[in-house]
Amino acid sequence: EGGVALVKAGALTTCTHLPYAPFQAKDDTGKVVGFDVALVDLVAKKLGVTQEIVDTPFEGIKSGSDLNAGKCDIAAAGMTITDERKQVLDFSDPYFDATQALAVLTGTTVKTLDELAGKRVGVQGGTTGEDYIKTQVAEKSLDIEVVSYKDLAAQQQALATKQVDAAVNDLPVWNEYIKNNPGKVEVAAGFDTGEQYGFAVKKGNAELLKAVNESLAAARTDGTYDQIYATWIGA
Ligand code: ARG
To answer: Would residue 2 count as lying in a domain?
Structure first.
């Protein structure tokens, strides 16, 4: 597609931070798949190239440094659009709505943050879930120790092995975890943070952003978005 400059010839390179199922994670064969991957594949197709995924820590994605450094063309990481991030990234139109959720091991009676006094809550470093909990703890002077993990896998592992008493992350990733690990974990509470995910490009990359938004709009119109949603998120 004329006008869209890409960092690598023939490829749309995507920065993401694995794993974040159902948005992006390796399947049994090691291939990175998921809701975000499928939507960005449509953009790549529109540009006549193939998507190439770069797994990199979330910090560099949300801070804009990866895109600025030319590490990739687009960031697709189940990433919430926030005012702070808008300063350093240009976001696409929203493509997914999410909230935060508190997960506990099945059988735990805790239902609120107040009941976690004296306990440990795991978060994923650099995420909106971490921000949400830290803000709650500060505002309500809660006696909760917030423990940050480098990625979702480490956070979920910490919950499963009782290094923390509860964990906060986006609701759809808990739903996916519960689907894949039946009976282990349950959602104790939801926090309606009204988040929306966006794909991000380097600030000022209007050509690519336009292609992304056109691709999203077409997918919403022709039913592809709904198909992808049904495949990765469910009914
Ligand atoms: N939606 C949350 C945020 O934007 C979490 C995103 C984490 N994504 C990932 N691929 N690890 O902060």
So the answer is: no
Q: What is the pLDDT along the chain (235 residues), one digit of tens a residue?
A: 457 999 999 999 999 999 999 999 999 999 999 999 999 999 999 999 999 999 999 999 999 999 999 999 999 999 999 999 999 999 999 999 999 999 999 999 999 999 999 999 999 999 999 999 999 999 999 999 999 999 999 999 999 999 999 999 999 999 999 999 999 999 999 999 999 999 999 999 999 999 999 999 999 999 999 999 999 999 7
From 32, 79, 134, 193, mutation site for ligand 1 pocket: most ligand atoms within 8 A of C-beta: 79
Number of C-alpha atoms within 13 angstroms, CB side, residue 42?
Answer: 23
Does residue 6 sit within a domain? Answer: no
Q: What is the domain extent for residue 35?
A: 11-95+198-232
Cα 2 to ligand 1 centroid, rounded to whole Å = 32
Residue of 32, 36, 58, 83 to mutate, ligand 1, most atoms within 8 A of C-beta: 58
Nearest ligand 1 atom, CA 151:
11
Nearest to 226 by CA among 195, 234, 100: 234
